Amino acid sequence: MSTTEQRVAVVTGGARGIGAATAVRLAAEGRAVAVIDLDEAACKDTVEKITAAGGKAIAVGADVSDEAQVEAAIARVVEELGAPTILVNNAGVLRDNLLFKMTAADWDTVLNVHLRGSFLMAKAVQKHMVEAGWGRIVNLSSSSALGNRGQANYSAAKAGLQGFTKTLAIELGKFGITANAVAPGFIATEMTKVTAERVKMGFEEFKAAAATQIPVQRVGEPEDIANAIAFFTGEAAGFVSGQVLYVAGGPLD
Ligand SMILES: NC(=O)c1ccc[n+]([C@@H]2O[C@H](COP(=O)([O-])OP(=O)(O)OC[C@H]3O[C@@H](n4cnc5c(N)ncnc54)[C@H](O)[C@@H]3O)[C@@H](O)[C@H]2O)c1
Questions:
Q1: pLDDT in tens, 112-130
Q2: Closest ligand 1 atom to the C-alpha of 158?
Q3: Torsion angles phi and psi, residue 129, rounded to 5
Q4: Is ligand 1 within 6 A of the CB of residue 146?
Q5: Predicted structure pTM score
Q6: Whose CA is nearest to atom 29 of ligand 1?
Q7: Which residues contact 181 (CB under 8 A, 6 or more apart)?
Q8: Domain Ketoreductase: where (predicted)?
C-alpha cells in the first residue's frame, strides 16, 4: 500500500461511549472508519461527527456474536471503504448479578458478545490484514478481568480476551499484525450509568464515589481510552504486541 492510501478501521460498538470516541479519534488520525453497532441508525451520530470534521466513515448494522452478520458486515466494509487492516473489538454488554442469581442466559449473552464477537470479527478481518502484510487488533478488556463482585460472566469474558489477545499476537505477528488489549477502569458511559441505576445511586454521586478510589482522583472519559487505542493502532507501534494496558487512573495488575 502507498503511504497516501487511507487505512480502513473497523470499530465495533461504535454508536456511543468508548467505541464512538475511538471511531472519531481514529478518523482524526486519518483512518477511514466503519462504525459497527447492533442498529445501523444508531451509528449515525458517530459517522456525522467524523464526516463533519472532514473524515471518512460508514455506519454498519451487525450483531458481532452472529457469524453471518459479521461476515456480511465485513464484506460491506471491503466494498464501501476497502480492505480493513485495523480492528477494535469494543462492542460489549453487562448482565451483572451475583453468581447464585446469574442465569445461564446472562452468562451466554456476555460471553457471546465479548468473546465470540471478538473471535468472529478477528477471523473475518485477519485475512485482509495478512494480505496487506500489516494489521492492528485491539481488544477491550477491563479492570474487571482481575475479578469483580457481581460480574462472574463479564470478568471471565474480559480475562478471556487477554488470553485471546496474546494468542493472536503469537499467531499473527509474522504477518505484520499486532494484537493488544486495553483494559479500562471506570469510564463515564451509558454502561456505567446503568450500573449506577442498578445500585440505586445517581450517576454524579456514583462517579464522585468512584473517583475517590482512583489515584488521579477522577473517573475516565471515553477519550482516555481512545487515546490508548490510537497508540496501539498507530504506524509506530509495530513492535508492541500481546500487551494488556490498564487505563484506570492508577496501577492495577
Ligand atoms: N465504561 C467502562 O467503565 C468500561 C470499563 C472497562 C471496559 N469497558 C468495555 O469497553 C467497551 C465499551 O464500553 P462502553 O462503556 O462504551 O459501553 P456502552 O454500553 O456505552 O457501549 C457499548 C456499545 O456496544 C454495542 N453492542 C452491544 N452488543 C453488541 C453486539 N452484539 N453487536 C454489536 N454491537 C453491540 C451497544 O449497542 C453499544 O453501542 C465494552 O467492551 C466494555 O465492556 C468499559
A1: 999 999 999 999 999 999 9
A2: 43
A3: -70, -45
A4: no
A5: 0.98
A6: 91
A7: 138, 139, 140, 141, 161, 162, 165, 243, 244, 245
A8: 7-185
